[in-house]
Write a structure and sequence with these properties.
This protein is α+β, with helices and mostly antiparallel strands. It has two domains: 124 residues, N-terminal domain of MutM-like DNA repair proteins, CATH 3.20.190; 130 residues, Helicase, Ruva Protein, domain 3 (Orthogonal Bundle), CATH 1.10.8. Helix content is 28%, strand content 20%. It starts with a helix and ends in a 14-residue tail after the last strand. The model has no long low-confidence stretch (mean pLDDT 95).
Length: 282
Amino acid sequence: MPEGHTLHRLARDLTSAFGGSAVAVSSPQGRFADEAALLDGTVLDEAEAWGKHVFIGFDGDHDEGRFVHVHLGLIGTFDVRTGVDAVPPPVGQVRLRLARPDAYADLRGAITCALVTREHRDAVVARSGPDPLRADAEPDRAWARITRSRKPIGALLMDQGVLAGVGNVYRAEVLFRHRLHPLRPGNTLRPATWRAIWDDLVLLMAEGVLTGRIDTVRPEHTPEAMGREPRKDDHGGEVYVYRRTGQPCLVCGRKVSTAVLEGRNLFWCSRCQPVFRSRAVG
């Protein structure tokens, strides 16, 4: 499933391509045809992301607001093409197409594509945790949930109601970078540790928006610095532990471990991220 940086990059690209312009809106597949007819020819104001949700706003002069709510899910794609001489016919199962004479965007395979009101948009946002990529984020909201929970920090970081936009890659990598075992209970973290995690996510995910890939290794652990081959993986980017099961840790050399937590794979180094042992006296 795409992580938050991908959705913010998508919102940026949609706004750049169509913001402030009247757009042709259609549903070649037909599943969004009635809603598309209501939007066709109206002005697309801007697109914004909150975690793994994208909201495309239309007709901002209307107090109630109209938004296309998109959640890509596991297989969804939203391809934006600009600078074209002519908009080509749609290919495949295109749920939603946005178009102007020199640009188009095709949505396929999303789990959510719905025309909603501002009230709906605000309700989705209210259920979401703070998003490290938003300037209006409130990290203390996430900390309040984490510090009260005995659930593993590896599960809490993936809970979109606790923290919006973090997926399996950023979860694995930020825990490695801060030497935290993924099964450590959330309520054992110190405030300074949480703040360091948050600040790191802000930087790492912002870089992901710029580059379109996830790179989490520090300068001393890049392929060039270590004299090793670049990582070969369809997710791209240089990482410490994600999907590196059985390979040597880039820091200590121990083989990377894996396990399943709440249906998703964990990745960690058992030496760099030792099991947490409470000092409390029972």
